[in-house]
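[job 4417] fold queue: 2 targets
>>> target A
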Amino acid sequence: MKPSKPKALISWSSGKDSAFALHEIRRSGEFDVVGALTTVTATFERVSIHGVRREVLLAQLDAAGLPPRIVPIPYPCPNETYEARMGEAVAQAVQDGITHIIFGDLYLADIRCYREQKLAGTGITPVFPLWQRPTLSLAHAMIASGLEAYLATVDLKYLPAEFAGRKFDSALLADLPDGVDPCGENGEFHTCVVAGPIFSRRIAVMTGERVERDGYAYCDLVMEEL
């Protein structure tokens, strides 16, 4: 009998980085990814930060074959509330025999350090499969893999509102202003993945209303009716 692989969760934001991190982990075969950990802002029933509808999130995870582990948080969410809710989710994961959480972080050392500090001593080890890969070549690798995504949120400090709702493709990369990271790692934009090698099927969405709130532009991505 082969020894069983360590059980892991993917920290799932609904976007391209977590999707490609999952792709790389599945290709390596090192872990048994048994679920997806996602914070959802209960006030709006949307993925936190990204603003993706819960029904789109659930369609993604169904297509990826991942049971959802949704962590509900309020809006606004004080940091101590966020950390308490995540602490409960981590404790439950440990109880379920999970030993690792996979993150799609690319190069922000403070974010990685925060994750490592919060998981220290919990029994969960963080894994960063995309860490320090050059982001322009990484963005092109994502696109070449068949990953399809839309910009769900843009930070208006970096990009005009019209970028919300655009496809994450080579044309977008060419249009990004100087100083904007090709993967949006500094928070310039956040994405919603609708297709790729991790999915059994494409998620049928259409771009809906674009709204601006709190310095961000959000494009509503709506499930197409069959």
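>>> target B
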Amino acid sequence: MEDNELLKVRLEKIAALKEAGIDLYPNDILPQNTTAEISEKYASATSEKLSKLSQSFSISGRLIAVRDFGKAAFIKIQDRKGQLQCYIAKNNLSQPAYFIYKKLDIGDIIYVSGKLFRTKTNELTIEASDLRLAAKAIRPLPEKWHGLTDIETRYRQRHLDLIANPKVKDVFQKRSRIIQLIREFMNKHDFLEVETPMMQPKAGGAIARPFKTHHNALDADFYLRIAPELYLKRLVTGGMERVYEINRNFRNEGISTFHNPEFTMMEFYWAYATYENLMSFTEELFAHIATDIFGGLKFNYLGTEIDLTPPWKRLSVKDALLQLAGMKAAELMNQTAALAFARKSGCDVKDTDSLGKILMAIFDEVVEKQLIQPTFITQYPVAVSPLSRRSAADSDYTDRFELYIYGKEIANAFSELNDPADQRERFLQQLKERETGDDEAHEMDEDYIRTLEYAMPPTAGEGIGIDRLVMLFTDSASIRDVILFPLLRIKEQ
């Protein structure tokens, strides 16, 4: 009922403005300044210095506060850069401008111009000589909007979240900066940014469940990409020896604080490099970002200090299971013993699962959460690495690593499998797993195998989760806090 009354009052004001010939949504508003530009430039200017300025300043933004004293008032305007106070006096404005002021509501977008001065409390303020309506807000902002805390409302109505919580805007500005820093770093190291298809005839490049769609003109099914990997490696085969893509991937899986079905990754491929080169490269990249964002390599994430100072800890899957899960060496070698350990640890495993899959289930359940400081976990089983090069030291394992920070995977990388015969055998094994009900197993991709038959140079590749990286560098607990419009259950309006 209260909302209905507020809406009624606003509609009455709108009717009065229209009757007076005021355009509610003009298209000629041209502010010459931002709030931050004025605040920063004149932060230390005295009242005397401000009084000597001949220029007028103009800003435009959302009206967020009003202190009215009858024929005068102080208001606050918020634009994309911050907030600034303005002084409104009836004697300083034209009759139409003052009429507009009296019909304003919190949430309206307005334009103010005038000279600068300091109030008795020393606050930098624009003394308005002109005021215009830039866009009328019909709906009132939520009650106590300046402290909007309801999580679902914040995610479903991100526009209100951005208005109400300035720190939210800071997160997304920092996200933009992080992506810019990644591009700077990759370009500096002679990588070429490319774009590959988001609709693919086969869902490849990762072990994941895809989204499926149908192209009417071609009368063919396509999949939203789960990874750009196979296309990027085609480019390496074609002679583009260093490529990267900042891409959107789609996986038809669960939603959690660390998972969103639509997410952003940076994948890159580097000919004549190994997974060991990528570990050092990753340390250098993260240090480049952290130094810009934090001014150093140490920062707090959810109350824990994270130290990015290289070199980071390196631990094989086997050693991690021995040291952190408490497995015995014999259990690492025996499927039955590993299965018993997995079930005792609360893992969801099947009797038909390979030893490699069982070991990784134990790792995910027991070890992962213990990896707080940056740690490279290396030498993953072949069974869970269908695109990775076999290790020369142990053919049951691969030259692969995953990077963990604060118990979560941030990056995945490996020396690429470029032997077409071995790749075919891996795909055939994945098909067998699909037949047993694993709908995340990789499909056969004859075209990709044919690509390898033209010879892909020895290559290493890596994928870095941008959303998780931003979570880390913005102290955000949920992936939804770093995605402007996270996927949510459809709600009746």
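[job 4417] complete. Note on B: The two ends are 18 Å apart (CA to CA).
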